[in-house]
Design brief:
The chain is α/β, with parallel strands linked by helices and about 140 residues long. The chain has a single domain, classed as Nucleotide-binding domain of ferredoxin-NADP reductase (FNR) module (Rossmann fold), CATH 3.40.50.80. It contains 3 helices and 5 strands; from the N terminus they run E-H-E-E-H-E-H-E. The chain has a 5-stranded parallel β-sheet with strand order 3-2-1-4-5, sandwiched between helices. The longest helix is centred in the middle third of the chain and has 14 residues, at about 85-95. The termini are far apart.
């Protein structure tokens, strides 16, 4: 007598949402909180913009989440505007990774958590507004932080 083999149910990686967590030096604890709530199988990007390289810390993210730090201070000491570098990175990520559903005009399966200051996050919010449903873009205000 043979015992039938049961196959474990697996969620295809393609069916999982893409996550984008974005923050700045004023919201590092919120970025860490967002990372802590991600499932282990989460995939996507974590963008953090800080004023100087001294503010970069180790973030413990799931294996498929890529952490990118953007420093406003250049080697010459000049500062870029808040949100400038992180907005460009979010635009590049969105154009490469987010594929629009032609029927609805929005990108399914995307969760964006924008927890930085309004000035820093405005550019990312603008980039995502064209391709991601507004209900999928959450801010610190959404979490009552």
């Amino acid at each position: 007598m043979t015992t039938p083999i049961r196959r474990a149910h697996r969620t295809r990686v393609l069916d999982l949402p893409h996550y984008l967590i974005a923050g700045d030096e004023s919201s590092l604890s919120e970025v860490e909180l967002g990372i802590a709530t991600l499932p282990l199988c989460a995939k996507g990007r974590i963008f953090v913009e800080v004023e100087s390289a001294d503010q970069i810390v180790l973030l413990d993210a799931p294996p498929r989440m890529v952490v990118s730090w953007f420093v406003r201070e250049s080697a010459s000491g000049a500062l870029s505007l808040p949100g400038e570098k992180i907005s460009r990175a979010a635009a590049a990520w969105a154009s490469e990774m987010l594929v629009e559903d032609h029927a609805t005009g929005v990108t399914p399966g995307v969760q964006a958590w924008l927890v930085g200051s309004e000035r820093t996050m405005d550019g990312i919010r603008e980039v995502l507004s064209d391709s991601v449903d507004n209900a999928s873009v959450l801010s610190a205000h959404s979490f009552q932080l």
